[in-house]
Specification:
heterodimer; A: 267 residues; alpha+beta; Alpha-Beta Plaits; 2 domains; elongated; B: alpha+beta; Double Stranded RNA Binding Domain; three-stranded mixed sheet; three-stranded antiparallel sheet; 9 strands; 32% strand
């Protein structure tokens, strides 16, 4: 038995490896990157040339992670139906270590998914309502305290219900996803784009008033229009601190302006 | 350790339907050069189009490849049998765009005087034909698309035998290289088919 191993209940444990993994897990903002770190540790400890861990979750199904972020190949194909596997080449890693590696990697993947899912809308991968509300609160406080300007843009897709009813929910979902991509393209770094309801989106444009808002909408339209004639949208805006610095009031003003425009467009 | 955005990028790719694994290759400067998705039970071309959209949001210069687990993996093919963009040149004196492609140890050169945007696509098709590829497509459109992260180029090609369009998107250093890469992107699946090499 090596000096860095401990025998307990007839099984060989390696405190060094476990402690290092736990230390990394505690310090790292655990996510997919941590899984690769664990595979690196494993490779280093056992002088491995290759290692693959296969994990599973309801959200992303079966997933294979390979040492060095390499792609899996035909050799790994048969593994993909098994979500309880750590494969190494050569096969020298004790079972107890494999189990620990798999558990800690599974935990890390779950943490990443939970963190990502708590902040983002699963369909469009932009911020969800909770993240939007926090961002609006933060922007409002900063505007109130420092006088910083920002604009809240509420966006409503036109006739979305008709799309769902006539061509089906799958097309509707694709449309929402496409619009989500367009929003992500159109916003600048530091802005927040969120899906806050079925076909309702919101954007917080930092340090933005009339001209910046106009250029954002132009970017959005130029990205959305070529992707398909099914998408058109109506917007309502409210700018802080000019209109208000209260989140609820800004939302109310933007919402009222949006529905005023919607009413006009229907007349 | 990967940066958080790289982690989210990979997670988003892994969340796409049918994706079983993601491989990531980096350039020397640490930027992501290429991602390879291993998929099963989904149309690889559909997955690739969505993955391209995702990549354009995080790493617009990254190439995206999709391998279908239900078919022979592309990784079993030697790299030498893949078409690679070697170099692009634009002459400000005569306005000619040149595209150099490598394939199986040979280099094909294509030229066009249509400016870097359209010329990049035309020269790429010419270079492919010089390499012996049968390219039964004609150029429908080349567009530079305004985006927050730059000006990706979209190339649309139409088949001579049917009305099916092939669309490629890429963003590189300049319009010429973007246009060349987008053209290769549009022809990606066709070039790897057995009938593509005519001589």
């Amino acid at each position: 038995m090596a000096t860095d191993e401990t025998e307990l209940d007839g099984r060989v444990y390696e405190p060094w490896l476990f402690l290092t993994m736990l230390d990394e897990l505690a310090n790292a903002d655990a996510g997919i990157g941590f899984i690769y770190s664990v595979l690196d540790l494993l490779a280093k400890r056992y002088s491995l040339t290759d290692a693959v861990v296969v994990l599973g979750s309801d959200q992303v199904g079966t997933q294979a992670f390979r040492l060095g972020r390499r792609q899996v190949d035909a050799d790994s194909l048969e593994l993909l139906d098994n979500v309880d596997v750590v494969v190494t080449t050569p096969d020298v890693v004790p079972d107890v270590v494999r189990d620990a590696v798999r558990s800690v990697c599974q935990l890390s993947l779950s943490l990443h998914l939970a963190r990502y899912g708590a902040a983002n809308d699963p369909l469009t991968n932009i911020a969800n309502r909770r993240t939007f509300e926090t961002a609006l609160e933060t922007a409002s406080v900063q505007s109130s305290r420092y006088g910083w300007a920002f604009t809240l843009v509420l966006i409503d897709l036109n006739e979305f219900k008709a799309v769902n009813d006539t061509v089906g929910h799958a097309v509707g979902d694709d449309l929402l996803r496409t619009f989500g991509y367009a929003l992500r393209r159109a916003v600048r770094g530091g802005d927040t784009a969120a899906r806050i309801g079925g076909d309702e989106f919101a954007v917080i444009l930092c340090n933005a008033e009339g001209p910046e808002v106009a250029s954002f909408l132009e970017r959005l339209r130029s990205t959305v229009v070529p992707t398909g004639s099914l998408i058109s949208f109506t917007v309502g805006t409210a700018t802080a601190p000019r209109d208000s610095t209260e989140p609820a009031e800004l939302y109310r003003i933007a919402d009222a302006r949006l529905y005023e425009k919607k009413g006009k467009s229907k007349r | 350790m990967m940066t958080p955005s790289e982690e989210d990028f990979e997670l988003e790719l892994r969340s796409l339907p049918g994706v079983l694994s993601v491989g990531v290759a980096h350039r020397d400067d640490g930027e992501i050069e290429k991602v390879t998705l291993f998929v099963r039970g989904q149309d690889p071309e559909v997955v690739r189009n969505v993955a391209l959209q995702v990549a354009s949001l995080y790493y617009p210069r990254a190439a995206v490849a999709v391998e279908d687990a239900n078919r022979a993996p592309a990784s079993s093919a030697p790299d030498a049998a893949r078409v690679a963009l070697v170099r692009t040149d634009f002459s400000v004196h005569d306005g000619v765009s040149e595209v150099f492609l490598g394939f199986a140890g040979r280099t094909g050169i294509g030229r066009s005087g249509s400016g870097p945007l359209v010329g990049g696509a035309e020269a790429t098709i010419a270079a492919l034909r010089e390499l012996g590829f049968d390219v039964p497509f004609f150029l429908v459109a080349v567009n530079a698309i305004a985006s927050v992260r730059g000006w990706p180029v979209m190339v649309t090609l139409r088949s001579l035998s049917d009305s099916g369009d092939r669309i490629g998107i890429a963003q590189a250093e300049g319009e010429l290289e973007s246009s060349a890469r987008a053209t290769l992107d549009a022809l990606n699946r066709y070039l790897s088919s057995p009938g593509a090499v005519g001589r």
